[in-house]
Design a protein that fits this description.
Blueprint: E1 7-10, H1 12-18, H2 26-38, E2 47-48, H3 61-67, E3 78-79, H4 83-92, E4 96-102, H5 105-112, H6 116-133, E5 136-142, E6 146-147, E7 151-152, H7 155-168, E8 172-176, H8 184-196, E9 204-207, H9 215-224, E10 229-232, H10 252-261, H11 270-284, H12 291-295
Parallel strand pairs: 1-10, 2-3, 3-4, 4-5, 5-8, 8-9, 9-10
Antiparallel strand pairs: 6-7
Helix pairs in contact: 2-11, 6-7, 7-8, 8-9, 10-11
Magnesium ion binds at residues 15, 207, 209, 238, 249.
C-alpha cells in the first residue's frame, strides 16, 4: 500500500448522494465508485443500510453492495444504524461499518427519531458483532460545532458522546461540522477538548462542510493539530438539508489540492478526482459546487 501522510476518506456515494434530490441509478453509482477507486481513493463509503423509506436515494443499497467491484486494498464502509441493518451488512459481506449519532440531543431526535442514548442502544448490537467479526468501525459524531435547532454546541457535549462511542467499540471517530458553521478556533477548541479527555489524533477524523466557505481553513487548522484523516465528497455533493441550495460536504478535489500544495502525501490523483467529479456532475445535471472543480488544478 502506498505510504501516505494523510488519509482521505471519501463520503460522496453515501453522505454526498443521500441528500441529492435527483434519482440516481445503481449503475451510475457503481461507475462513480469505480472512478473514485481509479483516482486512488482507498476508503470509499459506499452506501447506508438504513430503512429504504427513510432515505429513498439509498434504497438500492443491497443491490449496490452485491454488484460492487471490490478492489484489493480499498475499504468500502457502509453505514449500519441498527440490528436490521446488521443482517443486511452480514448478507452483503461487509468488513467495515459506520454508526451515526450526534452531540446535540435535539438534532438526534429530529434526524434519527431517537435520543442520543437510544441511538447508542440501537447500534450496540452492530458494534458488538463488528468486534467479534474483526470489522473496522467508525462512529460519526455529528453537530459537533453547531446544531440547526440548539445553536452552538459545547465541547463538553462532544467529549461526552465521543467517550461513549469509543466505549461502545468504535475504532475511529468522525467529528462532524454538519451545518458548516465552524472556524479554525472552533476546531482547536473541540480537538483540544477531545485530547484533554485522552482521545488522541490517531482516533480522530474531521468531517467539515463548506456551507460558509470555512472547510479548507478548518482542514488547515486540524493539520496543524496533527489530525491526519479527513472526510470529503467528490464534486462537493451533499448540499445542506438545513440551508437549501447551500454547499455541503468539503469537496475531495478542494481537499486534494490543499494537501498537494502543503506537500502532504495522500495517494490520490487530482485529475482522477476531477474526472469522477465531472461524472457525478453530469449525472446530477448541475454544475460542481467545488472551487477546484470549476478552476482545475495548478500547474496544469
Ligand atoms: Mg457530511
Amino acid at each position: 500500500m502506498t505510504q501516505v501522510d494523510v488519509r482521505i476518506y471519501e463520503v460522496g456515494p453515501r453522505d454526498g448522494l443521500q441528500n441529492e434530490r435527483a434519482a440516481i441509478g445503481v449503475d451510475a453509482k457503481l461507475q462513480f465508485i469505480d472512478l473514485l477507486a481509479d483516482a486512488g481513493l482507498r476508503e470509499i463509503e459506499a452506501t447506508s443500510l438504513v430503512s429504504p423509506t427513510a432515505i429513498p436515494q439509498l434504497a438500492d443499497a443491497d443491490e449496490l453492495l452485491a454488484r460492487l467491484n471490490r478492489r484489493p486494498g480499498v475499504r468500502y464502509p457502509v453505514l449500519v444504524p441498527n440490528a436490521r441493518g446488521l443482517e443486511r451488512a452480514v448478507a452483503a459481506g461487509a468488513e467495515a461499518i459506520c454508526v451515526f449519532t450526534a452531540a446535540s440531543e435535539t438534532f438526534s431526535r429530529h434526524n434519527l427519531g431517537m435520543s442520543i442514548s437510544e441511538s447508542l442502544a440501537a447500534f450496540a448490537p452492530v458494534l458488538a458483532h463488528a468486534g467479534e467479526a474483526g470489522w473496522w468501525t467508525r462512529g460519526y459524531l455529528s453537530t459537533a460545532f453547531g446544531c440547526p435547532y440548539e445553536g452552538p454546541v459545547a465541547e463538553a457535549a462532544v467529549v461526552s458522546v465521543a467517550e461513549r462511542l469509543l466505549a461502545a467499540g468504535v475504532d475511529e471517530l468522525s467529528i462532524g461540522d454538519t451545518i458548516g458553521v465552524a472556524g479554525p478556533s472552533d476546531v482547536r477548541r473541540v480537538v483540544r477538548a477531545l485530547n484533554g479527555a485522552g482521545i488522541g489524533q490517531d482516533r480522530l477524523a474531521m468531517h467539515f462542510h463548506d456551507t460558509r466557505g470555512t472547510a479548507v481553513a478548518n482542514v488547515s487548522a486540524a493539520l496543524d493539530l496533527g489530525i491526519r484523516c479527513f472526510d470529503s465528497s467528490t464534486g462537493g455533493t451533499g448540499g445542506c438539508p438545513y440551508a437549501p441550495g447551500a454547499a455541503g460536504n468539503l469537496a475531495t478535489e478542494d481537499l486534494v489540492y490543499l494537501l498537494d500544495r502543503e506537500g502532504l502525501r495522500h495517494g490520490v490523483d487530482l485529475d482522477g478526482v476531477l474526472a469522477a467529479a465531472a461524472f457525478i456532475s453530469d449525472t446530477l445535471g448541475r454544475p460542481l459546487a467545488s472551487k477546484v472543480g470549476q478552476a482545475g488544478g495548478w500547474p496544469a
